[in-house]
Amino acid sequence: GPAPAQTTANPAGAGVGLETQPSQEVKKLQVWILQGHGLKPSNLFCLCEVIQKDKKAKPLRYQTKSISKTPDPEWNELHEVSPWNQGEALEFTIYEKGLLQRSVQGRATLTSEQFHPRGFEGR
């Protein structure tokens, strides 16, 4: 099967379910953000960010809607990531949305080798 996503130390044991599928043009990705697991039941959203080679480029970020009161939020959202360049990683961060600030609940990074050219499905 596909290689697992690299995850940072996370006491909550969060996972991000996602699928990436390269379009025919390499400059576009379809990223399906499915769900999180084992999180603190709170107001949660997932932010997908392209780790771009060009550090001066405008940041590419895609955010899901917030889902509250469940440790296993199901976003089930498809985002078209464009432009994307081969070699650029995707970082997924799950945040708890508070009144004044947001706090990280989980994070996973996929290197481009993990999803290009065959796509990725996993957590």
**Rg measurement, Å:** 14 Å
Number of strands: 10
Q: Give the SSE order as H and E letters.
A: EEEEEEEEEHE
Query: Span from first to last CA?
Result: 12 Å
| Overall 3D shape | globular
Low-pLDDT sequence parts: 1-16
> What percent of residues are in strands?
over 45%
Overview of the structural elements:
- This protein has 123 residues and is mainly β.
- 3% of the residues lie in helices and 53% in strands.
- The protein is built from 1 helix and 10 strands, in the order βββββββββαβ.
- The protein has one helix at 112-115; strands at residues 6-7, 15-22, 29-37, 42-51, 61-63, 67-70, 74-81, 89-97, 102-110, 120-122.
- The strands form 2 sheets. Strands 1, 4, 5, 6, 8 and 9 form a 6-stranded antiparallel β-sheet that branches. The protein has a 4-stranded antiparallel β-sheet with strand order 7-3-2-10, with no helix packed on it.
- A hairpin with a 4-residue loop joins strand 8 (89-97) and strand 9 (102-110).
- The protein is globular.
- The chain starts with 5 loop residues before the first strand and ends with a strand.
- The model is unreliable at 1-16 (pLDDT under 50).
Which secondary structure elements does this structure contain, and how are they paired or packed?
Elements lengths: L5 E2 L7 E8 L6 E9 L4 E10 L9 E3 L3 E4 L3 E8 L7 E9 L4 E9 L1 H4 L4 E3 L1
Short description:
The protein is mainly beta and 123 residues long.
